[in-house]
Specification:
CATH superfamily: MFS general substrate transporter like domains
Strand order of the largest sheet: 1-2
Helix content: over 70%
Low-confidence stretches: 427-444
Shape: globular
Radius of gyration: 21 Å
Structural class: mainly alpha
């Protein structure tokens, strides 16, 4: 029987990367605009910490069910739903920025901003959907490179816009800036809807092909990873694997830390060192861009090294540890800059290494494992800013530096988890189905 299939691994990778880029861009306004909300609404440091962290809450927890949903439908449908939810949040914030800010924006609007922030954060959750989608498109030996490109280039969105936003806000004002961001997110959603494709197995299943036959034909085309039987099975099977939770711990430190610091650093530089919003935004953008771009090289390194994921993570976490020590001791922003760069390098490379290890550690439930790792790991983006703000509340201005000690403990714990992964034995290989060459028409 002749099948009509669309897309290629390359198209699957770049469409998912594009969608994640725009989805992540939806939350880029929160960090740079937090100072404006703080001034108008007279918010405490703790309230600001929760405000800038709110998108990370939905962006992390929704990764779990939506990544597992990929196991039954492929990634396209979950991806589009998350993008549409993010559009709802951006539309609400745009309305607030146009018609409420600044004269009528009082502390009574704070719960509304938190609620809209939750919707905006849905764009971050596209990450775990895209991870699963890209994984099913690519062979295992290509996983490190493909996932590093997806995560690295998709993650540059907050870095780019943290650079750009202070200038945009200065020239356009808050309302017009939100309009521009809403239109950009809408354009990204439409582009993904036009270009995004599920891997061959899911396309055949949607065409009514029996599961066993779809697996055989997709395997012949080059697909090596296949989903668990259903959503709950994928989550249960991955949750029963201890390696999943070791990876969650590592990713909480590095990707959760990346999200947290991208939002926190503008406040850190303006309040601790007294820098202008433009310079603070540039330094925070530098951190975000470096973390994202270095992730691509980290994935390629993990592909080349023997036991590449584990060995790459150990090296990167040691660099992260050294950068954290520099940040704690910095008394001038020129001293903090090298620490920021070291932290960016350590986080970016470790992020790539983690998702090199996911398909190897949990090959029978990649979607469920990606959900747990991406979701609970990214929860650090919500949990860490209030912790950093808590240090400021209790210790005053010195708390901006001392608060970084939380990364010392998290990095040491992550090094321990990586060591356990390295010496806990080989993962059970994914099952392979017997191959009968099918008649398949593939269109691009």
């Amino acid at each position: 029987m002749t099948r009509t299939l669309r897309g290629t691994p390359s198209q699957g990778l770049w469409a998912a990367t594009l969608g994640f880029f725009f989805g992540f861009a939806a939350v880029a306004l929160f960090g740079p605009t937090a100072a404006r909300f703080q001034q108008v609404m007279e918010l405490s440091p703790m309230a600001v910490g929760f405000l800038i962290a709110m998108p990370a809450l939905s962006g992390s927890l929704l990764r779990i069910p939506f990544a597992a949903w990929v196991e039954t439908t492929g990634g396209r449908k979950p991806f589009l739903i998350l993008m549409c939810l993010s559009l709802i949040g951006m539309a609400g914030l745009t309305a607030v920025a146009l018609w409420v800010y600044p004269d009528r924006l009082t502390a009574a609007w704070y719960p509304v901003l938190l609620f809209l922030g939750l919707f905006c954060g849905c764009g971050i959750a596209t990450f775990s959907v895209g991870i699963s989608q890209v994984s099913y498109w690519h062979r295992q030996r290509q996983q490190g490179r493909a996932l590093a490109i997806f995560g690295g280039l998709g993650n540059i969105a907050p870095g780019i816009f943290t650079f750009v936003l202070p200038f945009v806000l200065l020239q356009w004002g808050l309302g017009t800036s939100y309009v521009a961001w809403f239109l950009m997110l809408l354009a990204g959603t439409v582009l993904y809807a036009l270009l995004g494709r599920n891997s061959w197995y899911f396309q055949m299943r949607q065409q009514g092909v029996a599961e066993a036959e779809a697996r055989r034909e997709a395997l012949a085309l080059g697909q090596e990873l296949f989903p668990a039987r259903n959503l709950s099975e994928s989550l249960r099977e991955s949750a029963r694997c201890s390696k999943t939770w070791a990876l969650v711990c590592i990713y909480f430190t590095t990707f959760g830390g990346f999200i947290a610091l991208t939002a926190w650093l503008p406040t850190y530089y303006t309040q601790y060192f007294g820098l202008s919003p433009l310079l603070a935004g540039a330094l925070a953008g530098l951190f975000s861009l470096l973390t994202s771009l270095i992730r691509v090289g980290g994935g390629m390194l993990a592909d080349k090294l023997r036991e590449g994921g584990e060995n790459t993570a150990v090296l990167a976490l040691l660099i992260l540890l050294s950068g954290t020590l520099v940040m704690i001791s910095a008394t001038r922003y020129e001293m903090a800059l090298p620490g920021e760069i070291l932290m960016a390098f350590g986080m970016g490379v470790t992020n790539a290494a983690v998702f090199k290890m996911v398909p190897q550690a949990v090959p029978r439930a990649v979607g469920g494992a990606s959900g747990w790792v991406g979701g609970l790991g990214a929860f650090g983006g919500f949990a860490l800013p209030p912790i950093l703000a808590f240090a400021v509340r209790d210790l005053g201005k010195a708390g901006y530096a001392i608060g970084f000690i939380v990364f010392i403990f998290l990095t040491l714990l992550s090094l321990t988890m990586t060591w356990i992964l390295k010496y806990s034995g080989e993962a059970e290989p994914a099952p392979a189905a017997p191959v009968d060459p099918p008649k398949t028409l593939v269109t691009h």
